[in-house]
Amino acid sequence: MKKLIIIILLALMIVSGFLIWFFFFKSSSRTEQTYDLTVSESILAVNFTLRRDERYNGEGEFDLQENYSQQGIVDLFYNAGTNKKVKLVISMGRERYTYDIKDDTKYIYFPLQLGNGEYEIEIYENVKDEKYKKVYKKKADVVIADDRLVYLNTMQIVNWQGDQEAVLLAGELIRLEKIRRFEEKNDESFEESDLEAIKLTDLEKIETIYLYVVQNIRYDHSKPGRLTSDYIPDIDDVFNEKEGICYDYSAIMASMLRSLKIPTKLIKGYTTNTSVFHAWNEVYIEDENRWIIVDTTYDSYLYERNKVFELEKSEDDYTNVYEY
Predict the structure, then answer these.
(1) Cα–Cα distance between 174 and 182 in angstroms, integer?
(2) By the 8 A CB rule, do 277 and 269 touch?
(3) Considering the domain boundaries, does residue 18 fall inside one?
(4) Which of 152, 175, 201 is the last residue of a domain?
(5) 264 and which of 67, 257, 269, 303 could share a cystine (Cβ 3.0–4.6 Å)?
């Protein structure tokens, strides 16, 4: 009887401990911090740079540049003349992110999304089957000027640049929305000189891009079966083909919003809306100083079926595993 009581007490302690951890984690992970500068001011303060000289002029097989770590990014060059599977691991303490990398002639950008502190950056080459050997290691002390800047960068899995069609369209969609609002409120004809005076809130900009993605990108049900484990979205392909999987939806959404200087995360994890590993976005609304969950894949599904959908999702339905 005593053993039974002890077992029950231990079980209650474990359950209560888990519940305390769970609710603390859920609340603390969503706690919004205050910022001394606006996003635009932080961009200017660190001289935020989207694209650098990607050529490598050295002689080694590896090179890691930390020159832009203030904006939450590192530049990695890897060209070892091998076709082996290669993994990049970026970690801090027990938290780690693993990326598949290949020989390249230019630098590839990777996010520093684990905050300030000492990062450990390692490269592993495949030896046999699932065995890897470490071929490179470097530690870096990082102080990020503003954590929101991390989610404006172009990087391996959200690889965007200013001349891409999707990015150019993002700017044009905002312009057209401004014109629409002007004509809604005014009797006189719109002139380009009126454009600067028309202001949209962050939420209005987000909704404009969100509706475009939801209404114009279709889910490709056959694509998952054709992909390898190292698949990375190509923004140009998604935009031109107007179809993709959740990874593609979240990558093009992040690219278009980042180009408008709206911090946007690409999240991988789980949702109650599907039984498989999923990808979506978290978008920062500066006017309100908060991040919201946006799932364009799910809402595209609802839109196709003439069902009601809305921009912001409940955090109770989403569990983050990775964020980029």
Answers:
(1) 12
(2) yes
(3) no
(4) 152
(5) 257
Q: Which two tokens stand for residue 178?
A: 């401004």
Q: pLDDT tens for residues 241-276?
A: 999 999 999 999 999 999 999 999 999 999 999 999
| Domain end among 89, 118, 152 | 152
Per-residue buried b or exposed e for 168-190, using 16+ beta carbons within 10 Å of the residue's own CB: ebbeebbeebbeeebeeeeeeee
Of 212, 137, 134, the closest CA to residue 171 belongs to 212
Backbone angles phi, psi at 185, to 5 degrees: -105, -15
Any idea what the CATH number is for the domain that residue 135 is in? 2.60.40.10
Q: Which residues have CB under 8 Å from 140's CB, separation 6+?
A: 64, 66, 69, 74, 118, 119, 121
Cα 234 to Cα 23, 169, 318, distances in angstroms: 37, 16, 25
Alpha-carbon gap, residue 7 to 114, rounded angstroms:
38
Q: Is residue 28 situated within a structural domain? A: no
Instruction: List, for residues 69-86, the tens digit of each pLDDT value.
Output: 999 999 999 998 888 899
Domain range for 123 is 45-152
pLDDT band at 5 (very low <50, low <70, confident <90, very high): low
Dihedral sign of CA atoms 21, 322, 91, 152 in order: negative
* Number of domains comprising the chain: 2
In this prediction, residue 18 carries a pLDDT of 41
Task: Scan for tokens 């606006």, then name that residue.
Answer: 38
CB 109 within 8 A of CB 50: no
Residue 185 in any domain: the answer is yes
